[in-house]
């Protein structure tokens, strides 16, 4: 590849672009071009369309990395012509026609479902929607285990909720069928059953799966290892 790809880091539910900060800092210090756009967490189709449009406005090749729900987003957005690879970080590698709920439901051993809060939000001209977030008191253990306790408290009260419709919306495409991919399993994950990650990556035929003894926010607790997987993927792409 004559031009090193721009690295686009896609955050997941109950988080924002800052969740990637330790990895972003490392990649920037190594001279890579990195962009970390917001994901609005309103619907899988809408979020994926936004990221796809964002990527298509980048001049040159793009490597997409998605954490958690961001994995589902890059699965759909990754069909953009200039995307050259996908990196799943404790993420959902959905198949075409499959929803988050369907994939998660096959491996129900997770602490997340019992620690969610549902709140209505107004929708102009329609029935109220439902936002889903993690209980603030459970957030440090379920979502931010391994993160500095004070930082976890801040993350808990600043989390970005996910619209409930995103759980049941099927992926319209699966970019991993045509784009090379890599995967990180957080083997100490309390948010997504690690077997969800393993199953999705195996089905997607990812080139390499790295298991890290880490919690869900592996980008916060093991930024060097995550950055290494991303840069190794770029090196493999040539």
TrEMBL record:
<keyword id="KW-0378">Hydrolase</keyword>
<feature type="domain" description="AB hydrolase-1">
    <location>
        <begin position="7"/>
        <end position="229"/>
    </location>
</feature>
<dbReference type="InterPro" id="IPR052897">
    <property type="entry name" value="Sec-Metab_Biosynth_Hydrolase"/>
</dbReference>
<dbReference type="InterPro" id="IPR000073">
    <property type="entry name" value="AB_hydrolase_1"/>
</dbReference>
<dbReference type="GO" id="GO:0016787">
    <property type="term" value="F:hydrolase activity"/>
</dbReference>
<dbReference type="Pfam" id="PF12697">
    <property type="entry name" value="Abhydrolase_6"/>
</dbReference>
<dbReference type="InterPro" id="IPR029058">
    <property type="entry name" value="AB_hydrolase_fold"/>
</dbReference>
<protein>
    <submittedName>
        <fullName>Alpha/beta hydrolase</fullName>
    </submittedName>
</protein>
């Amino acid at each position: 590849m004559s031009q090193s790809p721009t690295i686009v880091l896609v955050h997941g539910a109950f988080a924002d672009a800052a969740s990637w900060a330790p990895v972003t800092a490392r990649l920037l210090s190594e001279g890579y071009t990195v962009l970390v756009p917001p994901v609005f967490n309103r619907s899988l189709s809408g979020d994926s369309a936004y990221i796809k449009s964002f990527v298509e406005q980048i001049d040159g090749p793009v490597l997409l990395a998605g954490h958690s729900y961001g994995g589902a987003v890059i699965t759909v957005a990754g069909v953009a012509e200039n995307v050259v690879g996908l990196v799943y970080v404790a993420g959902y590698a959905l198949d075409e026609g499959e929803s988050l709920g369907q994939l998660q439901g096959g491996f129900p051993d997770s602490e997340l479902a019992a620690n969610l809060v549902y709140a209505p939000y107004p929708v102009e001209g329609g029935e109220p929607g439902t936002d889903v977030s993690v209980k603030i008191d459970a957030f440090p253990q379920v979502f931010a285990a391994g993160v500095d306790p004070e930082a976890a408290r801040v993350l808990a009260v600043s989390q970005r909720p996910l619209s409930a419709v995103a759980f049941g919306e099927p992926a319209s495409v699966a970019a991993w069928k045509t784009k090379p991919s890599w995967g990180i399993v957080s083997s100490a994950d309390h948010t997504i059953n690690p077997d969800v990650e393993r199953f999705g990556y195996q089905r997607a035929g990812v080139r390499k799966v790295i298991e890290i003894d880490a919690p869900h926010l592996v980008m916060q607790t093991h930024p060097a290892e995550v950055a290494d997987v991303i840069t190794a993927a770029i090196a493999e792409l040539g």
